[in-house]
Design goal:
six-stranded antiparallel beta sheet; about 675 residues
């Protein structure tokens, strides 16, 4: 994959600084070993994801990557140290392939993104000491380890934003190099080195391979003009972010380049957007290849096991066939074998050694004695090796002919017994192999190749918690302190009903009656809604008391000497209670001013849609439960994981399998 050039990084970091200055740092993730994603909240814009890939790229992205269930150490530390911090600045360091993201929380922190070589991402404290690097590295001049002072890489090349003509001309003092290599190795890279030469050629002819010693003053002046013409366009905000394509090449650049004037071009509003389109597609392919490789290793493990087991079984079959054949050969040549055994035993009775017997038999064979022609050898224990009709036999003279034959038959029987176990093992491995291949196929089909996250135009009530009751009344609730204020001040009308769970940390909830009268069913459903979107969920409660009052009883004016935090209200007068409201929600797609996802009481979902999932307080993280829910309800591909996560209550969840099993039983 193409790594960002110094020019790319300059353009991206300037855009990022304008976009993210003042933004609040949210969570951080690490989808792969060298990619870290930092999420920011920009006032008036919302969520912005910043993708940082070591040694390769940094840009905002609308293609959310799949994150591991258990976050690695580095993003967890980022969450601990900088979540909630505000961005002070984002800048490129000395026109090098290094980006500094400076944020402020309780103190200043800096995230260094190194995009040279294999790259790194490093968290620094306010004294420029390393808190933790993504990768620990050590060179003679730099030590990237925790508690060490961070030292920037040695400056190389020229800064085209600040360099004057004299500094530019000094580059060509190296008489051993040529024009294009001189420009390329001084921080401009081959693309922009060639671009400078092309622009210089509009003034005077110059070959890019001209040795520095042969460059004339006029050519040097033209090169500087091409240099200034190229990089002044960066400082004058005349960038034209684009992806260029030809039959053999694709690239992303921030400027119109002469080198690419004949290429097909697609322009974008920002260079970050262009980089996102260019890199995200390639990274998706890389991620798929990495995951496929991991699955292939698992498949290969079983294939190798199956191959070894099959080879072992084949050996058993060969042993059976070979041993039975040898037993038959012994009986077929009973007299011949018995004669040579008698020779050996007689010689032993006369105190001949086995070595001497061997010499005698060898000589007899050489001399043409018929009985000795089957002789091959005899070992120091007197065991004979005979060869009869190209069949090699091991014969023990101390045993009878039938006993020697029985040894081979017994060997065949043992091998036959072992084949049964081998066949069972092979069948088990085949099943395991089929199972792992099936899992691989499913996993490859379900690899979350990120889809572009398009910001949806939400209805006013979708910016809050909401549901439509079984009798079609809209009920809304606050998501946080700000929206709790909005529910009461902006949306609570005089004839509505206000509800709040009787626990610290809950959503301000309003039933929009629109002139209707309150009824027990509506109160019950709204009570469950208010209870579920309260701290009762994260505490694991199954029920929670909820009170309701009329709007005129809700006040923002505290008692004398008291203070009300943002999102808090004073309730005056009698409170009506809904005792033991169920802490449980159903989630599905309903048709309410168009199809959209809704989380509310079970009865409300039963009334408005057929396919929904019931969740209760549990142990699964939001991302994990969201994946299960989207698989069950997203039939028309209307939703993203973010849509599911947005409507879930604060805290972990489980699917209420008991409810779904009961409903399934009732249908049958």
């Amino acid at each position: 994959m193409k790594s960002m050039s110094n020019v790319d990084i300059y353009t991206v970091s300037n855009e990022l600084n304008n976009l993210l200055s003042g933004a609040r740092v949210d969570k951080s993730f690490q989808p792969t070993k060298d990619i870290v994603v930092m999420r920011f909240h920009v006032p008036g814009t919302g969520r912005i994801d910043l993708v940082m890939q070591c040694g390769s790229r940094i840009h905002t992205s609308q293609y959310p990557l799949e994150n591991p269930t258990t976050p690695p150490t580095f993003p967890m530390l980022l969450r601990k140290r900088v979540k909630g911090a505000h961005v002070e600045s984002i800048k490129q360091h000395n026109f090098d392939r290094v980006v500094e993201i400076r944020v402020k929380k309780d103190k200043y922190y800096t995230i260094i993104v190194e995009l040279f070589d294999k790259g790194n991402i490093i968290l620094l404290d306010d004294e420029n000491n390393i808190i933790l690097p993504l990768k620990r590295k050590h060179w003679s001049s730099r030590d990237i380890s925790s508690k060490k002072e961070y030292i920037f890489p040695e400056e190389r090349g020229i800064n085209p934003i600040t360099a004057g003509e004299e500094e530019f001309n000094d580059l060509f003092s190296d008489g051993e190099s040529d024009v294009v290599r001189t420009l390329a190795k001084n921080g401009l890279g081959s693309l922009y080195a060639e671009e400078i030469v092309k622009r210089a050629n509009d003034i005077i002819d110059i070959d890019k391979n001209t040795p520095n010693a042969d460059v004339t003053p006029e050519q040097l002046s033209a090169l500087y003009s091409g240099f200034k013409d190229l990089f002044d366009s960066l400082t004058q905000d005349s960038i034209k972010p684009q992806i260029v394509k030809s039959e053999s090449k694709e690239d992303v650049v921030a400027l119109d380049l002469k080198k690419y004037e004949d290429y097909d071009k697609t322009y974008y509003e920002s260079f970050n957007e262009a980089c996102d389109e260019f890199y995200s597609k390639k990274v998706n392919t890389d991620i798929k290849q990495v995951k496929e490789s991991a699955w292939n290793k698992k498949v290969n493990k079983f294939e190798k096991r199956l191959s070894l087991q099959q080879e072992t079984l084949d050996n058993f079959y060969r042993t059976i066939e070979d041993s039975q054949h040898k037993g038959e050969v012994i009986y077929s040549n009973y007299t011949t074998i018995e004669n040579i055994i008698n020779v050996v035993n007689q010689a032993r009775s006369k105190d001949y050694s086995f070595k001497e017997i061997g010499k005698i038999l060898k000589k007899a064979k050489k001399d043409g004695m018929d009985e000795a022609q089957i002789y091959e050898s005899i070992d120091k224990l007197g065991v004979l090796t005979l060869n009869i009709n190209e069949t090699s036999l091991i014969i023990d003279p101390k045993l009878t002919i039938p006993e020697n034959a029985e040894n081979y038959y017994e060997k065949a029987k043992k091998a036959k017994r072992k084949t049964k176990g081998a066949l069972i093992a092979i069948e088990n491995t085949k099943k395991q192999l089929e199972d792992i291949k099936s899992k691989k196929d499913i996993a490859m089909e379900n690899i979350a190749v990120p889809k572009k996250r398009v910001k949806k135009n939400l209805k006013w009530f979708e910016k809050l918690r909401w549901f439509v009751s079984s009798d079609n009344h809209l009920v809304i609730g606050g998501r946080d302190a700000n929206s709790n204020e909005s529910v009461v001040k902006k949306y609570l009308d005089p004839n509505d009903i206000y509800l709040h769970a009787d626990i610290h940390g809950a959503s301000s909830t309003a039933i929009k009656l629109n002139g209707s009268k309150i009824n027990d069913t509506l109160l019950k459903e709204s009570g469950e809604f208010a209870a579920s979107f309260s701290s009762a969920w994260s505490l694991g409660y199954t029920t929670q008391d909820v009170f309701w009052v009329h709007p005129e009883q809700v006040s923002k004016t505290p008692e004398a000497g008291e203070f009300l935090a943002k999102g808090s209200f004073v309730i005056r007068g009698h409170r009506n209670y809904i005792r033991g409201a169920r802490v449980k929600l159903a989630i599905g797609i309903v048709d309410y001013e168009g199809k959209r996802i809704m989380a509310g009481p079970i009865e409300a979902l039963e009334a408005h849609c057929k396919n929904f999932v019931v969740v209760k307080p549990g142990f699964m993280k939001k991302e994990a439960i969201a994946k299960k829910i989207i698989h069950k309800i997203n039939e028309d591909d209307l939703l993203t994981l973010d849509d599911i996560i947005r409507v879930l209550p604060s805290g972990k969840c489980d699917i209420d399998e008991e409810y779904h099993q009961r409903k399934k039983y009732e249908k049958n």
